[in-house]
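Action item from last week, closing it out:
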Amino acid sequence: MLAEYDSRLLLGRQPQYPPGRYSALAGFVEVGETIEAAVAREFQEEAGIAVRNVRYLASQPWPFPSSLMIGCHAEALDDALTIDTTELDDARWFTRAEVAAALSNEPGAAFIPPPPFAIARTLLEQWLNA
């Protein structure tokens, strides 16, 4: 899931990622919860931000029984972060130019993007080309 604020995207990194990699945030839909409510809850839990206008963008199979990756975009109400360090090593806002440089594998890019097969990469590409 991607959150946008003032034309910047919130991306995070998990401890198992290679150094420099940032990606979309992720979470799980709880029993009886809508996708929109899950996105809002997960952003609040992991990054301490409130979001609105959650939109579905894409899906991808996930290699676990009865699982599906659902990609969403949301608008953040502000850019102040409170990172849950049990979930994320770091999270920060990236500009359109920083995302473009990362996706183009430019030397000195602000981050290493998710691999091409990941739904997070698809979400970044869609956002950049919108």
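Closing note: The two ends are 16 Å apart (CA to CA).
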